[in-house]
Amino acid sequence: MKKILLIEDNQDVRENTADILELENYNVITAENGKIGIEKAIEHLPDIIICDIMMPELDGYGVYECLSINPKTANIPFIYLTAKSEKADIRKGMNLGADDYLIKPFEEEDLLDAIECRLKKKEFITKEFSNNIDGISEFLNEASEYLNLEELSKEHTLKKYKNKEEIFREGSTALQLYFIKTGNVKTYRSTESGKEFVMGLYGPGDFIGQLSLLAKTGTYVETASVLEDAEILSIPKEEFTKLLYGNRDVSNKFFGMISNNIIELQEQLVDMAFATVRKRTAKALLELDKKGMMKDDNHTGIIIPREDFAGLIGTATETAIRMLTEFKNEGLISVETNRKLVILDKNRLGQIANNH
């Protein structure tokens, strides 16, 4: 049962409103002024707060300001009740960050609709979606309902790619966002001399292509090819745009899901500019291990061409081989006959990676 805190100094309004909400199976907690309301909000941590603006002791603005700086109550949806319809009073409340307002006297239907809308928003925002194909499909379906967009696809087709097959090519029109269900993918850019500069290695749970969809050129800024057989979900650019720009709440949620690769790319570029080759090698090995690309008790590992690894850390192939040999001689990694890498001392690699 959802808990609602109702802060209202007028006894008749408070009791009548509480009756309406209780008949809708809400657990209603009431407070007759702002100070008591703050105490009860901290004590009960309600799912939503409905608060009058003009009250003795402490007005609704003060209540919101106090609760918004408390980590325990800052994210509770907040609806103002006001007998004033002047735009200045309404705007002040909304500028502070309140979610909604109702002007007294209000209709029962308007009250219940406002509560349902804010609870639905909170549930969507706070929900954690799994970083797998089921989680992505669940997010797309719920985002579609949240945005009331029937045109968002309910089903997304998985495509199987063979080893070394291209998913998209640098310079081609950017039409899809891709999510890796299984397998591993590398992205790279080609230099004028024809060499490949590896931008990243990605595995299950990773998105690729988002930077290209955000670019003004409208084309893919890199090439993506498969390192081992993969299953990949594609999301059309039209859906990507609706999810990113259609609603702030959905946008924040969606961007958080797809932004990890962008953050990793930024860190990689900073490392290439300032970190030593030894540090970059250690960080790359740990990142590959995190993605399940290194052989261990839980993963079979993949064969990573040395030229790809060199591109990943931004150095010549010969230098990358020399660094891997040094790490092998130090007992940090081992190299199997099939050239798969195995981490032997993760703690020591972490120390090297974090050494400033």
Can you walk me through this structure?
45% of the residues lie in helices and 21% in strands. It is built from 14 helices and 13 strands. The strands form 3 sheets. Strands 6, 7, 8, 9, 10 and 11 form a 6-stranded antiparallel β-sheet that branches. It has a 5-stranded parallel β-sheet with strand order 2-1-3-4-5, with helices on both faces. It is elongated and about 80 Å long.
Secondary-structure element series: EHEHEHEHEHHEEEEEHEHHHHHHEEH
Helix percentage range: 40-55%
Please report the number of helical segments: 14
Reported for the largest beta sheet, the result is:
6 strands, antiparallel
Q: What percentage of the residues does DSSP assign to strands (E)?
A: 15-25%
Structural class: alpha/beta
Sequence stretches where pLDDT stays below 50 over 5 or more residues: none
- The averaged pLDDT comes out at 85
Radius of gyration: 27 Å
The rough form would be described as: elongated
Distance between the termini: 51 Å
Number of strands: 13
What's the short version?
The protein has 356 residues and is of the alpha/beta class. It has helices spanning 11-23, 34-44, 60-68, 87-96, 108-126, 133-147, 210-214, 237-245, 248-258, 260-274, 277-290, 306-313, 317-329, 346-353, and strands spanning 3-7, 27-31, 48-52, 78-82, 100-103, 158-161, 166-168, 176-190, 196-202, 207-208, 223-236, 333-335, 341-343.
